Amino acid sequence: MFIEFPFEGFIFPDKYGINQSKDQLIDGINLCSLPFQVTNLAATTQTVAFSLIDYDAIPVVGYPWIHWLGANVPVERRLGNRVVIPADASRQGAFLQGTNSMANIIDQINKPADFAYDLTQHYTGPRPRQGAHNYRLDVYGLKSTLPLQPGFGYNQFLEALDTGLVEQAHAYLTYAPKN
After folding, report:
1. Most buried of 150, 157, 174, 177, CB within 10 angstroms?
2. CA nearest neighbour of 2 among 41, 35, 34
3. Could you give the CA distance from residue 30 to residue 40 in angstroms, rounded to a whole number?
4. Rounded to a whole number, what is the largest CA-CA distance in the chain?
5. pLDDT per residue over 139-167, tens digit each?
């Protein structure tokens, strides 16, 4: 099982983080999710689940910051046993998504009055307050779908993984704000 990105190196491209023009952000939050693909999956892997977490946030906010949780993404057999997560897939709602850490601060976010998108159950791009942060993308190959509901919590996600984990891989990506 391998995680691949459509960009060079392991640096988050700016188009998926805070280094965008303000008109591309909602109160400093980039909603355009990171693309990646998972290849070389075992024949018994039927679906994929993943988490994107910033553990460097612990000294800043006191806990790891969950940027994105996804589950029950089907393996594409016709594409050679792979899963492709295209850019901005989170907003397209093509798979089950869990609750991110925005739920802890959602009342502090300034959203346009006509904004109906739920920031707590989709991708939110990196926006470290200072310096570079490392973001860990964990991908899990599973023998079936996970018994989760939309907005599932990270604790529920981890517990559900025990029901059919076949394989797993991870990658670290770095991102830094431009001041």
Report:
1. 157
2. 41
3. 30
4. 47
5. 999 999 999 999 999 999 999 999 899 99
Closest CA to 170 of 33, 36, 60, 15: 36
6 torsion bin: left (phi>0), alpha (psi -120 to 50), beta (else): alpha
Asked whether 50 and 68 are in contact (CB, 8 A), the reply is: yes
Residue 128 CA: distances (Å) to CA of 12, 29, 100, 144: 12, 11, 15, 35
pLDDT digits (tens, 9 = 90+) for 117-142: 678 888 988 988 888 999 999 999 99
Q: Is the pTM of this model over 0.90?
A: yes
User: Exposed (0-12), middle (13-18) or buried (19+): which is 167, by Cβ within 10 Å?
Assistant: middle
